[in-house]
Every structure is written in structure tokens, then in C-alpha cells.
Design goal:
CATH superfamily of chain A: P-loop containing nucleotide triphosphate hydrolases
Number of domains of chain A: 1
Number of helices of chain B: 4
Distance between the termini of chain A: 39 Å
CATH class of the largest domain in chain B: Mainly Beta
Distance between the termini of chain B: 50 Å
Oligomer: heterodimer
Number of helices of chain A: 12
Shape of chain A: globular
CATH topology of the largest domain in chain B: Pectate Lyase C-like
Structural class of chain B: alpha/beta
Strand order of the largest sheet of chain A: 3-4-2-5-1-6-7-8
Shape of chain B: globular
Number of domains of chain B: 2
Radius of gyration of chain A: 18 Å
CATH architecture of chain A: 3-Layer(aba) Sandwich
Order of helices and strands of chain B: EEHHEHEEEEEEEEEEHEE
Order of helices and strands of chain A: EHEHHHEEHEHEHEHHEHHH
Number of strands of chain B: 15
């Protein structure tokens, strides 16, 4: 069996590509799949921090491509979850250090080792994006419900179509149901109407993402985290399961806060 | 080399701002003439803060020419709004749009697009354009003829880009940031953005401005 390459991209920066990559990696690995997360953001390395593996880096993607290290030497295995490995980006080079042909070769080598290769694309539509997209079997577009992010996602979808890749699927990130209800945020349907691609997951806004990202402990490890559960559902959909899309309630809404008080007198704490 | 008079660049103030008119000479000499004129001492004062549009003579600019022109103007801190070829014939000065009229252009092919135009996808066509799909925010169509969209318009469309003010833009829903027909430009207001449309609409020029009406064929 040969592994599947999934590229996570968005166009706009800061919408959650790296967080998505890390959490889908963890969620798929928790299903017993062998996963390699690849940081294609050469020069602006991030994925290692989000996965909590930054102090174990010896070799990086450029070392592998340029033949200074073997793939297995550069891959870092997560001690908490042995199915999960990461190939870090080089921090000292730039996007032109790797070309699309080299990325395809690298992905082919990884396909023999693992079930899923998740590539974290850099923001933008230039060289780094082209590297990330070149070996993709599936493309997941991350967007937030903001007009600027949706416009960039639209641009990226056009470029993915032009590259003759399969139709990308959408992850709608950082949705705030309360704001949507008040008409202050684009609703899921609005975004889908513009982008006209299939939805693979909705991730609600969740403050625990910030602490988990800083600590290098992806929320997909947490059973209680709403975002973590959402990533778990996306992973199951990637594995071919038919998981229904639920309706999110806003945790910060007054009603839900009152309900939580009733549920537990000490409530109000962690989600 | 071309004769001097062909290559002349001139500019004048209009109600909308400043219009730079490019002569029909060879492209390089037009650019040279533009640079010389901009280098004059009073030129920069004339352009300060003005909305600048460009009439490109009988030519349609390709991407490279457009960028050359923009870079010269940018060097003088001039931001360009519209760029359009000169009208081949002034449109008939009548209030109502005629049911039937001829356009003084060569025979053109209709461009059919059977997909959604996404952000960053740009179509330039001599003749009419029909889109079976949406035209999204960030996409752009510039056509010398009509532009009919069997989908929603959220991007930028310039119909009648050769100066044909009788051109129309039709769509199932018109929600663009801006509409351009012939030599006219209309920007949408904050109220327009909230407007929900339920039936197909068309935009056309009536009495000197762009109006949106229910699409009646």
C-alpha cells in the first residue's frame, strides 16, 4: 500500500494551516495510521513548535533533498504517539532551496514509509505553494469565515484546479456560531456558496488552541476540546467514514454559560 | 521611426479627473513621449491627488504593455484607474437604448466560459462573453461586447470596453464592487452590498449613468 499525500493550504496566512496539519496528523495517528507531517514552509519553520518537537531537530527537509541526510534520519518520531513523525523545514534557507520535482521525489519516498503524508503549505501563491501542491493526492483548503480569507481561498482553488489536482475540500476554521447568529460573521453556507467546493470539516473557535500551540500539545489529544473533537471528525472523514456535520453552540453565549453553571457549580473553566 | 505627431501623448481634465490620451503611434515612441512629458516641471503638480484614467487609442493593451505603462506612471506617483481604448464612434446621444443597433467593430467571436471564474482569473476578450457559472470577487472580465453571466457576479466586469456605451451586463445576481460599461464606471455603495437580489438583473447606461434593472430579455 502506498501512502496518500494531503496538502493543507490557504493562500492567506494566519488562518490555521499549521494547526490543522498538526492536529490532523495527531488525529489520524490516533486511529493507528502511520503519519508523516511535512513542514514545507522553508525559512519560516513552525510545525515543529506546534507539535512540540522543536528541540529534537537534527536534519531538515533541505538536508534530505540535498542528500546530506537520509529520510529516516531527518524524520522525528513523536514519543507520545509513535505512529506520528515529522519532517521539519529548514529555518536558514528559503523556498527556492527545494523545487517541485524534488518535493514529488520526497513524497514518493515517504509514500513507501507511511499511510498519510500531510504537507503544511506556506502562505502565498508562489514557489513554496507550488512545492507543497506538486505531490498532492488530496488538497484541503483552510479558510476562516472572513471575506479576505475566502477571497484568497478562492484564488487558491483556481490555482489547484489549474494544476489539475482533484477538487479540493474545505475546512472552515475558527467559526464563531454566536457571531454568525447575530449576522456579524459569514455563515458556513455563505462560504460554501462562494467557493463551491465540498466541506470536510468545521472547526469552532477555541481558546485552548492558543495554549496548546504554545505548549506544543495539539488539541487533538484532548477529548474535551471542541476544536480537538472537530479535528477528530475530519480525520474520520479522511478515512472514508460518513460523519454528520453537527450544529455548533457558542460556548461564550449567555445561554450556554448559564446552562453550564447549572450543570456544574464550579463550571466556567476549561471547554 | 514613426512621425512625431503620431506618438504624442496628451492629457486633459475631465469631470471624473484627469484623462491621459495616448496617440496611435508605435508603442515605444508613445512611452518615450509620455516619459518626456511627465519629466516636465509642472507635470507632477497637475497630477497630484487626481483620479487618472487612460485612453489607449485604437489599441488594446496586453499584460506587458499595461505593466510598462503602469510602472512609468508609478515612478511619477500616479495611480491609474481605468484604461480603455478610445471609442471608435461616439454612441448615439439618445436617452433610450435602441432595440437594435450595429456596432462598428469587426466580426467577433463569442467567448463561452463553462465554469466559475475565481479570484485572480482574468479574461480579456474582443467581443461578447457568456459565463455559465459565477464570477467571484477578485476575478475580472474585460470585453468589448456584452457580458452575460448565468450565475452570480461578485467580481469586476467591464462590458463595451471599446467604448460601446450600449453594452449590457447581465447576471442572476449583481453584487460587484464596481461596474464598468463603455466609458462609464459605477462603484457600489455600502447599501448595495446588503442588497439581496431575487431575480436576474442587468446593468446598462441610461441618461449618462449606469443603472441596474430586472433582466428583461
Amino acid at each position: 500500500m502506498s501512502g496518500t499525500v494531503i496538502t493543507i493550504t490557504s493562500g492567506k496566512g494566519g488562518v490555521g494551516k499549521t494547526t490543522t496539519t498538526a492536529n490532523l496528523g495527531v488525529a489520524l495517528a490516533r486511529h493507528g495510521k502511520r503519519v508523516a507531517c511535512v513542514d514545507a514552509d522553508i525559512g519560516l519553520r513552525n510545525l515543529d513548535v506546534v507539535l512540540g518537537l522543536e528541540n529534537r531537530i537534527v536534519y531538515d527537509i533541505v538536508d534530505v533533498v540535498e542528500g546530506r541526510a537520509r529520510l529516516r534520519q531527518a524524520l522525528i518520531r513523536d514519543k507520545r504517539l509513535p505512529e506520528l513523525q515529522m519532517l521539519p523545514a529548514a529555518q536558514t534557507r528559503d523556498k527556492t532551496a527545494v523545487n517541485p520535482q524534488q518535493m514529488m521525489k520526497l513524497a514518493d519516498d515517504l509514500r513507501a514509509e507511511v499511510d498519510f503524508i500531510i504537507i503544511d503549505s506556506p502562505a502565498g501563491i508562489e514557489h513554496g505553494f507550488k512545492n507543497a501542491i506538486a505531490p498532492a493526492d488530496r488538497v484541503l483548503i483552510v479558510t476562516t469565515p472572513e471575506v479576505s480569507a475566502v477571497r484568497d481561498a478562492d484564488r487558491i482553488i483556481g490555482l489547484v484546479e489549474a494544476a489539475e489536482k482533484p477538487k479540493p475540500q474545505l475546512i472552515l476554521n475558527r467559526l464563531r456560531p454566536g457571531m454568525v447568529k447575530r449576522g456579524d460573521m459569514l455563515a458556513t453556507d455563505d462560504v460554501l456558496e462562494i467557493l463551491a467546493i465540498d466541506l470536510i470539516g468545521i472547526v469552532p473557535e477555541d481558546e485552548t488552541i492558543i495554549t496548546s500551540t504554545n505548549r506544543g500539545n495539539p488539541v487533538a489529544y484532548e477529548q474535551k476540546s471542541r476544536a480537538g473533537q472537530a479535528y477528530g471528525r475530519i480525520a474520520r472523514r479522511l478515512l472514508g467514514e460518513d460523519v454528520p456535520f453537527g450544529v455548533f453552540e457558542d460556548e461564550t453565549g449567555i445561554l450556554s454559560r448559564v446552562q453550564r453553571w447549572f450543570r456544574s457549580p464550579n463550571g466556567g473553566g476549561g471547554a | 521611426m514613426n512621425t512625431e505627431s503620431d506618438a504624442k501623448v496628451s492629457w486633459r481634465g475631465t469631470r471624473e479627473g484627469v484623462l491621459i490620451v495616448l496617440g496611435d503611434g508605435d508603442w515605444d515612441s508613445v512611452l518615450r513621449d509620455l516619459e518626456q512629458q511627465l519629466a516636465r516641471p509642472n507635470a507632477s503638480a497637475f497630477f497630484r491627488g487626481a483620479r487618472v484614467s487612460i485612453e489607449t487609442g485604437k489599441r488594446f493593451l496586453n499584460q506587458g504593455e499595461r505593466e510598462e505603462l503602469e510602472s512609468i506612471l508609478a515612478a511619477h506617483n500616479i495611480q491609474v484607474g481605468a484604461m480603455m481604448p478610445a471609442a471608435t464612434a461616439a454612441p448615439a446621444p439618445r436617452a433610450e437604448r435602441p432595440d437594435m443597433y450595429t456596432r462598428e467593430t469587426e466580426a467577433h467571436q463569442v467567448l463561452m466560459i463553462r465554469r466559475t471564474l475565481r479570484s485572480g482569473q482574468i479574461i480579456h476578450h474582443q467581443g461578447p462573453v457568456i459565463v455559465y457559472g459565477d464570477v467571484n470577487d477578485g476575478a475580472e472580465i474585460v470585453a468589448t461586447g456584452d457580458v452575460l453571466i448565468f450565475g452570480k457576479l461578485r467580481g469586476l466586469v467591464h462590458a463595451g470596453a471599446g467604448g460601446d456605451d450600449h453594452a449590457t451586463i447581465g447576471a442572476f445576481a449583481l453584487n460587484p464592487p464596481q461596474l464598468r460599461i463603455g466609458n462609464f464606471i459605477a462603484a457600489s455603495s455600502a447599501d448595495d452590498k446588503k442588497r439581496k437580489t431575487r431575480s436576474p438583473e442587468m446593468a446598462l447606461v441610461r441618461e449618462g449613468r449606469i443603472v441596474i434593472e430586472p433582466w428583461r430579455v
